[in-house]
Structure prediction request, 80 residues.
Amino acid sequence: MDNLVSRYSDRILAVGAVTHSDQLVIELVQPPDTPAAILIKWPPQPTVTDPAKLMATIAAIVRVLGTAQIELAARRAAGL
Prediction:
C-alpha cells in the first residue's frame, strides 16, 4: 500500500476527515491527451452527522477544499 500512496502522492492535493469515519480526497489528474481535471472523492456512503455538529462538518469539508485550492495554486506558482 505504501508504494501505491507514494506513486499517487503527486496527484493528491488534499486529504482530510470530515467526520470520525469519513474523509475527502482531492486529486489533480493530468492525462497526457486530455485537459487536467480535479477529482473530489467523497465517501461511498452518505456522511451522517448529528444536527448539532453540522457546522463543524461543513467547516471540515471547506477546510479540505481550501487546502486543495492552496496546494493547486502553489503548484501552479512553482510551474508544476
Summary: The chain has a mean pLDDT of 87. The helical segments are 2-8, 54-77. Strands lie at 12-17, 23-29, 37-41. The chain is about 40% helix and 20% strand.
